[in-house]
């Protein structure tokens, strides 16, 4: 009997490559989200530290200019926090999209892998059937020889 061959091997390799690429993309977006979350924490801590530093250094007097400077510093920190937060939301959306692409790529690869497995099982079943037929032929030929003798 001929050797087992799967004529969709190239497709299976393509699906594996697509899944690997989707996993890498997902991993990169997760790493980006982690970085943005750290940056969000730092910006929020910076905003809190601005208020604490102003409270410590200006407990006795607080002029109009100092109040305006404090408000500007807080506004800048708030704006930076908002930008980082928006970038984080966008990155989380990209992560969700990358996760769905990764799952879809895994499903596509699994379909081809299951097809390969079924074809391999069919090949083994056919080989076993052929072997059984050959054994029966040999047994029948011997029994005919014995009766003829």
Briefly summarize what is shown.
The protein has helices spanning 9-57, 64-148.
Biggest sheet statistics: none
Average residue pLDDT: 87
Roughly how many Å is the radius of gyration? 35 Å
The general outline is: rod-shaped
Per DSSP, the total helix count is 2
User: Order of helices and strands, N to C?
Assistant: HH
Tell me the number of structural domains: 1
Helix coverage percent: over 70%
Tell me the span between the first and last alpha carbons.
33 Å
Q: Which runs of at least 5 residues are low in confidence (pLDDT < 50)?
A: none
Label the structural class.
Answer: mainly alpha
How many strand segments? 0
Tell me the fraction of residues in β-strands, as a range.
under 5%
Provide a descriptive summary of the structure in words.
The protein has helices spanning 9-57, 64-148. 5% of the residues are buried. It has one domain (9-113). It is mainly alpha-helical. It contains 2 helices and no strands.
Annotation keywords:
149 residues, rod-shaped
How is the secondary structure organized here?
Blueprint: H1 9-57, H2 64-148
Helix pairs in contact: 1-2
């Amino acid at each position: 009997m001929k050797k087992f061959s799967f004529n969709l091997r190239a497709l299976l390799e393509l699906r594996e490559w697509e899944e690997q690429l989707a996993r890498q993309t997902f991993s990169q977006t997760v790493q980006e989200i982690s970085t943005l979350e750290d940056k969000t924490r730092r910006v929020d801590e910076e905003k809190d530290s601005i208020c604490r530093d102003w409270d410590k250094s200006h407990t006795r007097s607080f002029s109009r200019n100092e109040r305006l400077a404090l408000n500007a510093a807080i506004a800048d920190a708030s704006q930076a926090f908002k930008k980082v937060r928006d970038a984080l939301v966008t990155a989380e959306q990209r992560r969700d999209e990358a996760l769905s692409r990764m799952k879809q790529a895994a499903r596509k690869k699994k379909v081809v892998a299951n097809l390969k497995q079924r074809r391999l099982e069919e090949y083994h079943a056919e080989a076993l059937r052929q072997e059984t037929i050959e054994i029966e032929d040999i047994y029948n030929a011997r029994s005919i020889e014995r009766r003829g003798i």
